[in-house]
Design brief:
314 residues, alpha+beta, five-stranded antiparallel sheet, five-stranded mixed β-barrel, 7 helices, 23% helix
């Protein structure tokens, strides 16, 4: 990512979380739920820092400013180690705006919102345009993580909203600097608002699934074939023996017209591999999308269409 002009001494940023009920009369919250909020905020900040939300410099330390009497407002300070971090870059680092932006985007994705447009920029960022024309710009890794709604990110958001399960009805999120007072920050419009419905959505367990498709070529033997629809063929390559769906219709037509297959025939095959990772476990499915006989094997005394007696045309 292209480095922006270095900032000098960085002001500590601040993220303000204001929990309230319908009457605005909350004076205390469940301690266990409040602990979850802090834990979730630490986890979300750590995830965003690793994805590059705060630039290439050191990650900020999350600290808590004391709440004021008569309301329940949690103020988390993003404190920078050292007065002039040499590697700190970017303009968003001076406030809590970057983290609040990440929280807001995370809540949008939690509600199922899809951007109407997004563009990968030359500087390594992604510009995201939402349906309401709100524009966000974050590092590509941050967007990829939020867009995928990773299980760990969803869990962190759930923890941040924990008081919405019981005492609170809404959560307002604002940003500011540590030099600003609580009242000064409260006078600004919240950057994000979460409701009980958002908390309930985050509570629902979802599988963390990602999928990748690769296409590659290989030499292979067809060690077991089955012409029944939906059945897999067993193929042997240098990487081992796997089952694969046959999708080459032209090859199947040639076999129907009388092309004999022999046990030791060698084929050039094009394989489409779909890798699916679900909750950390990866499975791979193969499909044969192109099959061309490279050379015929030695005569094994079987002129039929199948290398194995068990194969079927039914």
């Amino acid at each position: 990512m292209e480095k922006k002009e270095q900032v000098g001494e960085l002001a500590d940023g601040l993220v303000q979380l204001r929990f309230s009920d319908e009457k605005g009369q909350i004076h205390d919250l469940n301690a266990a739920e409040m602990a979850e909020t802090l834990q979730g905020l630490v986890e979300f900040t750590s995830q965003m820092a690793k994805a590059g939300l705060f630039g290439d410099g050191p990650s900020p330390e999350l600290r808590v400013r004391p709440p004021q009497e008569g309301s329940f407002i949690l103020e988390a300070v993003l404190a920078w180690a050292g007065e002039n971090p040499e590697e700190a870059v970017g303009t968003a680092l001076a406030t809590g705006g970057a983290l609040v932006q990440g929280l807001n985007m995370g809540l949008r994705r939690l509600r199922g919102a899809e951007p109407k447009d997004f563009d990968y920029l030359d500087n390594g960022d992604v510009k995201v345009v939402w349906a309401d024309d709100k524009v966000d710009q974050v590092p590509a890794k941050v967007w990829d993580q939020l867009r995928a709604e990773k299980k760990q990110t969803r869990k962190a958001l759930r923890k941040i909203m924990a008081p919405l399960s019981d005492d609170a009805d809404s959560l307002e999120v604002r940003d500011g600097t540590a030099a600003e007072t609580t009242d000064e920050i409260l006078r600004t419009e919240p950057e994000a608002v979460a409701s009980r419905d958002d908390y309930r959505t985050a509570v629902v367990e979802v599988d963390d699934i990602s999928e990748r498709t690769d296409t590659f070529e290989a030499e292979a033997q067809l060690t077991s074939i089955d012409f029944r629809r939906g059945e897999k063929w067993r193929i042997k390559t240098l990487d081992g023996t796997r089952q694969a769906m046959m999708e080459d219709e032209e090859f199947l037509r040639q076999v129907d017209k009388g092309m004999a297959l022999h046990k030791n025939d060698i084929f050039d095959v094009t394989i489409r591999e779909v890798s699916t990772t679900k909750n950390g476990r990866t499975t791979r499915d193969w499909s044969l999308i192109k099959v061309i006989r490279k050379r015929r094997g030695e005569d094994d005394g079987n002129d039929g269409a199948s290398p194995e007696e068990s194969s079927s045309r039914e």
